[in-house]
Design brief:
Number of helices: 1
Strand content: under 5%
Radius of gyration: 25 Å
């Protein structure tokens, strides 16, 4: 009887883990979709910033090596 209860508990645990993993995957897909949608606008803004900085005489436009969070 105890063995059967352990098996049932293990099945419930596995179902819970499967559900949580599915939610995480779904959330990650939504996050990536938002990123892909916003990326062209971010690239255009960086290009405009770079062009504006290079148009000012005596100012060298720096290309960032890494983007700060939220930019």
């Amino acid at each position: 009887m105890e063995h059967q209860q352990q098996q049932q508990q293990q099945l419930r645990n596995e179902a819970c883990l499967h559900s949580c993993a599915g939610k995480l995957i779904h959330s990650n897909h939504r996050l990536m979709a938002a990123y892909v949608q916003l990326m062209p606008a971010l690239v255009q803004r960086r290009i405009a910033d770079y062009e504006a900085a290079s148009a000012v005489p005596g100012v060298t436009a720096e290309q960032p090596t890494a983007s700060p969070p939220g930019s």
